Amino acid sequence: MRVWEVQNDWGIDNLRLAERPEPEAGPGQIVIAMKAASLNYRDLMTVLGKGAFRELPAIPFSDGAGEIISVGAGVTRVKPGDRVCPMFFQSWIDGGPSAEKRSRSLGGPLPGVLQERMLLDAEGVSPVPEHLSWEEAATLPCAALTAWRALIVEGKMQAGDTVLVLGTGGVSTFALQFAKMHGATVIVTSSSDEKLEQARAMGADHLINYRRTPEWAKEANALTEGQGVDHVLEVGGAGTINQSLEAARVGGRVMVIGVLSGFSTEIAMRSIYMKNLRVIGLSVGSREHFETMSAAIARHSMRPVIDTVLPFDAVPEGLRRMQSGVHRGKICFRYD
In whole angstroms, what separates CA 236 from the centre of its chain? Predict the structure, then answer.
């Protein structure tokens, strides 16, 4: 079978297609014929040598979907023919996060989904909504689940709440969709008027171009009549965190789910203290969270936003597209 490997050194130019033996399912295991994968910013960073892999060669990417083609002895919860996604955290089935539950993630330190046949524990997969294509299903395990956990599990979002979404990347776009699904008002920021208009077409209520409005927290407060927003999805890191804290209402939640502009900055402690903010760091979620999310997606016939679908042979091209920043929605790869 074909797999993509980062081979002699880190970097997109060091990705190579290689051949590996077909896996066989042992007791408690399954083999999946992978049909599609999707790209996250984490995967780009991993290929560039900034991920959880410590040795080469390494098979990158965490998110994919496929069909179970064989099961080992003792497997009863899934069967051949089932359409499934491998879970990002293979050991986080339910309950809250812990170091052990978060220790086994696909695409680093475990081998990722860029392989035509994938051997996994039967507990480490979940069925996908029937109305989704393979590419659409492949977008769910990381970006969608992170947005779902931020707003629904941790944020306990209610109809009528106000949500501030930074940018139009994968997590942010899913957050917009989930927020509108639940009857929330959504403010979206971006440096691109074109991307903002696309967000409006998806239901965004208010748009802020942060190039023209660098102090966008003031604009977010004005849009909420001075109250501030209930939920902020903070994906920027050092360059945006203080604006996010300023934009949140008293008692609001700031979900820290990305660090695109770095880790280190002077934090506006006064806002956290005086506003009694809940600042929550989170990444992805459990299989139980995924199953609840999938049920909601199926009930509302929601479809993920896909930027482009490339063949399996074009993984380096997809990574360079993400690196350029021109994409909107998910970059996906079809295996056949």
Answer: 14
DSSP 55: S
For 286, phi then psi, to 5°, come to -95, 170
Asked if 88 and 142 count as a contact pair (C-beta separation under 8 A), the reply is: yes
pLDDT digits (tens, 9 = 90+) for 272-295: 878 999 999 999 999 999 999 999
- Picking from 155, 205, 165, 158, the residue whose alpha carbon sits closest to that of residue 185 is 205
> Alpha-carbon torsion 230, 236, 240, 242, what sign?
positive
> For residues 93-119, b (16+ Cβ closer than 10 Å) or e, as one string?
eeeeeeeebeebbbbbebbbbbbbbbb
User: What is the C-alpha separation between 254 and 248, in angstroms, rounded?
Assistant: 7
Domains annotated for the chain, with CATH where assigned, are: 2-139+304-334 (3.90.180.10), 144-281 (3.40.50.720)
Span of 97-101, 110-114, 295-299, 323-327 with lowest mean pLDDT: 323-327
End-to-end Cα, the chain, rounded Å? 12
Which secondary-structure segment (H or E) carries 189? strand 185-190
Tell which phi-psi region holds residue 229, choosing left (phi > 0), alpha (psi between -120 and 50) or beta: beta
Q: At 280, list the tokens.
A: 């929550």
Task: Please state whether the peptide bond connecting residue 109 to the residue before it is cis, i.e. omega within 30 degrees of 0.
Answer: yes
Longest dimension (CA), the chain: 61
* Backbone dihedral region for residue 277 (phi beyond 0: left; psi -120 to 50: alpha; all else: beta): beta
pTM of the prediction?
Answer: 0.94
